[in-house]
Backbone:
């Protein structure tokens, strides 16, 4: 997958504030979103999965990530949709997180 063709989505927050990212995940197919980020500038506070399909054979829903901004500046937060049996990512989401000092 060519990362030059992936749209970068902007997020703006303040230092010490938290923000959420919500992604659809179909665990029936083995999908799982895996975040990549610098833990010195962003901290993963919560990772929650909310099943939205009420069927015993289907396990899909919304995955919610909550991050806390630790450092001022522009930071990259990338999510790769992984499948257990594949070496490459099925999909990617890239966010540019701008952390401001509003103290």
Residues:
């Amino acid at each position: 997958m060519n990362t030059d063709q992936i749209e970068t989505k902007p997020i703006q927050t303040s230092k010490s504030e938290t923000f959420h990212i919500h992604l659809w995940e179909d665990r029936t197919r083995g999908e799982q979103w895996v975040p990549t980020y610098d833990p010195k500038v962003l901290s993963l506070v919560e990772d929650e999965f909310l099943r939205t399909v009420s069927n015993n054979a289907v396990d899909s829903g919304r995955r919610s990530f909550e991050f806390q901004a630790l450092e001022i500046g522009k930071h990259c937060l990338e999510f790769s949709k992984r499948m257990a049996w594949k070496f490459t990512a099925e999909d990617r989401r890239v966010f540019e997180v701008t952390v401001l000092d509003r103290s």
Remarks:
- The mean pLDDT is 90.
- DSSP finds no helices and seven strands in the chain.
- The chain has one domain: 3-52+59-100.
- Residues 72 and 99 are 5 Å apart (CA to CA).
